[in-house]
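Lecture notes, unit on protein representations.

Consider one protein chain, 427 amino acids long.
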Amino acid sequence: MKFVLASWGSRGDVEPYVTVGRELDRRGHNVRMAVAPEMVDFVESAGLAVVAYGPSMQTSFDVHRSWARVFRNFWRIQDLRRLSRELSDLVTQGWGDGTTTLLSLADGADLVLTSCVGFEHLAANIAEYYDIPLATLFTFPWRANGQLLSFLPAPLGRSAMTVYEWLSRGGAAKKIEQAQRRELGLPKATGPWPWRIAKRGSLEIQAYDEVCYPGLADEWAKWNGQRPPKRPFVGALTMELPTDTDEEIASWIAAGTPPICFGFGSIPVESAADTLAMISSACAQLGRRALICAAGTDFSGVSHFDHVKVVSVMNYAAALPACRAFVHHGGSGTTNAGLRAGVPALVLWTMPDQGAWGERVRRLKVGARRRFSTTTQESLVTDLRTILDPQYLTRARQLAARMTKPAESVAVAADLVENFARLKRVG
């Protein structure tokens, strides 16, 4: 069978699709991927055929930094309006080329698997045009529910997400989507695309563990009571790739007390020097060592310290179990790597989805959260002291024991995609 997997985003956004794609390829299927230009090399290194899709990720990084500044000065309404336009432009500018790319890739395909954020409706329209099944992959519960917005009562949270889904159909995105549907000869869309996707009977894979969101499975029982289940939980999807630094990291960890691991993802922090100095001072005050995964941040040329080790990349699956705690940005893949490793977490978040994972970690009582822009050396010491309490470690290990193993997650996800494609039934 032929599968098209489309995901626009950074490494954490793309890796779940590469994980499924490699398994489908191993099973003998024809797999084609579409990713952001910066992610093409990563996908090719995994052995999959790939084309560039959508705008450059640099635009996303700029918007991300704007979000950080707005959160510090949320009363500046003009900045909020400007940022909203930037976000709208980021999504809509990729529609034209994205449509052409996916239209070509999906010709003759048996199924399209796409991201739930960004260009989901674009892929949904193309799947409808070819009359083939559509599957979406969620790294957090992004369909209306009463669990995600845990600071609200469940009914109110569910209503807020429903309203958001309704409002998301308007503005420039609506005009562009309607134009796309006209070009494809499809009828005018009615209602938000998440509702249309669900009505069409699409598969909506939940690539995180059910135990992370107690009560969500019961809330979605009407979807998973169908055959096949429409919103199945499979656990986080990751390749757990070895790196050139694995032996070096293992040796350094073994040479002293278990360190606190720090990692902030693909998007650079605003000041590498200030961040490193804050981490170094906080860990020195606590008598702890620090292991930092640089990833998207350039720490070269910055003063380093004896109790701090900085590496460019890291296999979290190999290193985290030997660490005492994990401080990170709250990306879905990173959060789940920490949860699976059974170590307490401190989420220093910037974007709303990261904050949601931080709140989830706090509610599970396996960590704490704080906005990165408000973090200081003093607050970092306080938060680390909190999560270093032995009770957090005990609960983190108990939760890890209940989570789905990575090999099982990818096998189940690939089974779901294969079986759904074989149905040839799209509503």
